[in-house]
Amino acid sequence: MSWFRFFVSSERILSHGVGMTWDKAELENEILLARQRVYRAGTPTPLETLELDGLGEIYVKREDISPIKAYKWRGSFNRMALIEGEDRKLPVIAASAGNHAQGVALAAKILGLKARIYMPTTTPAVKRSAVLEKGGDSVEIVLIGDGYDDALAAAKESAKKGGVFVHAYDDLHVIAGQATIADEVVLSGKGPFDVAYLQIGGGGMAAGVATWMRKFYPGIRIIGVEGEGQASMAAAVNAGKPVRLDELDIFCDGTAVRQAGELTHQICSEVIDEFVTVSNEEVSDAIRLYWESLRCLQEPSGAMGLAGLRKHGAQHGFSRALVVACGANIDFGQLSRIADLAGIGGRRRRHVRINIPEKSGTMLGLFRDAFEDLSVIDFQYGKTDPEQAWPVFGFGLTDQELEALLSRLKTRGYEAAMADESASVRFRAIPCEPRFLSHPAFLEIDFYERPGALRGFLDDVVRGEANLCYFNYRYSGERIGRALIALEFGTDAHRSRFCEDLPFKGSGYRQCRILSEEEADWLVPENSAS
């Protein structure tokens, strides 16, 4: 028995050792053997096509359609199926941010084993619930620490006291199990592929899939895709050994690994041709694209491969590409953040702060001068100065469209600045000084979500009779937009007359309700001019 085989077959040994090497033929043999085990737990997943304008054929391996809605069942089951004899009486010990835990739980239940899984306290509730649902009485969850590293350290300490440790990625049999993804692709007859974009966290899936794809498609290029702020594998390859990242972005929580594995680093060093990093915005937009094209909802790490393809493939081109939709175990509460980052229709949300004089008619003038061909998807403004105003407008824009807007504003005499990173914009902290408001009326408006609707309301309803002193609106993807606004008037009589004449429904808006003084007291204290 070689040192390498001894290491991977005795998982109670926690040290990876020094100078460990991998054997390509041995891994390929283990991939073949994995065929005999993994399909006790699941069935092959489909390979579907996705069309993107200007790019070649794209095939998507749908690992989100699997027993645990992610690919991790393959590696964990393959490894745990090898537990025999007295070791079956010991608990299986694992650490996971979510999907590996579900695979271990499923395998434990099918194989009649007991598992103790250490998970970060930050693990999404949907993943924790799924672990318990898949494992039932066979699994125990221990929540510890703020990240995968904390859970991994606790799991290793627990295994020292007696247990069979099953690593999430740095294990020959786990890697071989994940490689059955590529085996199914090869057997599908859809190849050959000239490029594959594989997301990388710890590197288990990329190491196995890339090894098998290279065996059958010798000319294929393998592009490793990592998230910005979590590119531990590229760092390891550059350094010649695994290195620990000081900072770790956890938006793509399934790939948030601070340090690449010893074994996966060695394999990926040989089988990955190039690395590309993708931003959270690019990942979010890939999630949007999966949904719009395949009605497939991916967790952030599951969409990283497609994000890498869109970024790298658009520059380098390809004839036939493979991506893996790795998993759909997403916390529902994360969708709003993803929608924000993804932008609108593939365009990024861009926020611009514009200076205008604080007087009646200037806001409407700005809409007419600069926004005639744009849809406002965010409008944040509160009066804080009697002379000057700094409203913030959000748009869904490409880089070229943003440049054109800024140029148009400058040409027409407006001072503008980007506000995407402003804390007040990101947290919607809209300042407003009630002492500067003159006889305000607060209105809650539902208007039809179409280009020009806001301008139409200002044109048809306000008509220059009042000054806009507060506006809070944000596009939500619905057919109806909702806004809270305030108009100020010269006299209380003018305010009362306007409110009495304001139609409940009108051209472009579904309904308009005037807030009572009690409802608006948060902005209108007793000493205000109203």
TrEMBL record:
Q: Which reaction does it catalyse?
A: L-threonine = 2-oxobutanoate + NH4(+)
Q: What is an annotated GO biological process for this record, any one?
A: L-threonine catabolic process
Question: Could you cite one Gene Ontology molecular function of this protein?
Answer: L-serine ammonia-lyase activity
Ranges annotated as spanning the membrane: none
Question: What Gene3D superfamilies has UniProt attached to this entry?
Answer: 3.40.50.1100, Biosynthetic Threonine Deaminase, Domain 3 (3.40.1020.10)
* Listed cofactors: pyridoxal 5'-phosphate
Enzyme Commission identifier(s)? 4.3.1.19
The ACT-like domain, residue ranges: 441-516
Superkingdom of the source?
Bacteria
- What does the record give as its pathway? Amino-acid biosynthesis; L-isoleucine biosynthesis; 2-oxobutanoate from L-threonine: step 1/1
Record carries keyword Ribonucleoprotein: no
Keyword set, alphabetical order? Amino-acid biosynthesis, Branched-chain amino acid biosynthesis, Isoleucine biosynthesis, Lyase, Pyridoxal phosphate
* Family the UniProt entry places it in: Belongs to the serine/threonine dehydratase family.
PANTHER family noted in UniProt: L-THREONINE DEHYDRATASE CATABOLIC TDCB, THREONINE DEHYDRATASE, MITOCHONDRIAL-RELATED
What is the designated name of this protein? threonine ammonia-lyase
